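Loading example: each entry is read as two labelled lines plus one structure line.
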Amino acid sequence: MNALSRCLCSYWSSSIGKKLVVALTGLALVLFLAGHLTGNLLVFVGQKAFNDYAELLHHALHGAGVWIARIGLLSCVTLHIVATIQLTRENKAARTPYAFDATIQAPKSSRIMIWSGLTILAFVIYHLLHFTVRAGNTYDTYVDAAHLANTGLTRHDAWKMVIDGFSVWYVVAFYVIAMTLLCSHLSHGVASMFQTLGLRSKKSRPMIAAISKGYALLIWLGFISIPLAILVFGFGK
Amino acid sequence: MSKQLNLTLKVWRQDSKESAGRIETYPANNIPEEASFLEMLDIVNEGLIVQGKEPIHFDHDCREGICGSCSLTINGIPHGKDRGVTTCQLHMRKFTNGDTIWIEPFRAKAFPIVRDLIVDRSAFDRIIASGGYIDVRTGSAVDANSLPIPKADADSAFDAAACIGCGACVASCKNASAMLFVSAKVSHLGHLPQGQPEREKRVLAMVRQMDAEGFGNCTNQYECEAACPKEISADHIARMNRDFAKAAAKEALV
């Protein structure tokens, strides 16, 4: 075994090391969310801006960029979930239950992490089938008509796909529920990331709590604004 | 005549390590409100002995909040819901006449029950033995203040050193994690110049022993610092996480 794999094994086999894996993969996913949200908000700028952005993502590095990102994200998600499931199983095994159970200060969001996390996983699978694989719908056939008229080139109309996708009430309901659980997951997860990476101290403690709650709220408001604008306020129709 | 309380106790009784336990109900009548929680149990036990019944077994020693012997999870909270006190410092005036009080041991897989409310906390001793020491030369005592220590470091080391090793952190943790205890011990020595030579070796050994004892993993909910009778901060856990990450990388790579 070489030194690097010995180092990684020593992390993975210890409680703190495995939590570091959760924190670092969590950090990557948290940063991805910010990028994803920024891109998505282009839907409000207009059809051209949004479809230009979609085209850019699919053609970065001659089409390899999107696959590099997908593989990176998939590895992060896998490591994050495998580690947290193992940790949760150990935690359940270590605790003998009390007849009279009480909680002093742990917020609800911190106590449902595994369930909010697994619901988000179910949501991500649905979300990929909905907009990436486009299974069970005809979004693949959408062509950006304005772009075709201006340039004579055919490209996918991602903007119309979003508008049509969020015109169905139960789809919107599922998205809003999933984003609410994501908000709960982040409100504990972001602060935990700082603690596990050893960046929390007496002085930074209130700031980290504020960053965590603020970021969770921002992500929640940002992501639910799109389906709600379309379904409730008729945006894009 | 001081005020007296009549209470109902729901107490965990377990004859031995192997036997199955159960909650039993006892009346606790005419308890003076200035009695400590342990004195209340003494009164109940005297009654049980007179009736020819087995008294309730519980750990206690100094009864002034410094030895770390007394335990008891009272209404689901180790050492009761008052902040910064041990069970022996909890007084019956904090309860109301007619209350029902649930009394359970400090529960965790790593703290097996010996009898009734007594648990075996020797896992903590093994963690201390694995790294909670410093190397010093023997002989004449070193001059006082010969090693300059920044005030903030001395204060932080002292805060961590206040840990009495009672195990309330483990008992309160949703995952029965010992991170607050271990981090207090790591921080206590790691803040001081005398603790530097073994700093990396210590954090690795103590964390590995902690994992081997079957404690759970920290999920950053800070129930431990709320339950700690010495109010030790979970900031020490962040420091230990940082120390461990550095030490594990250095051990494997350098």
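The CA atoms of residues 22 and 81 of chain A lie 8 Å apart.
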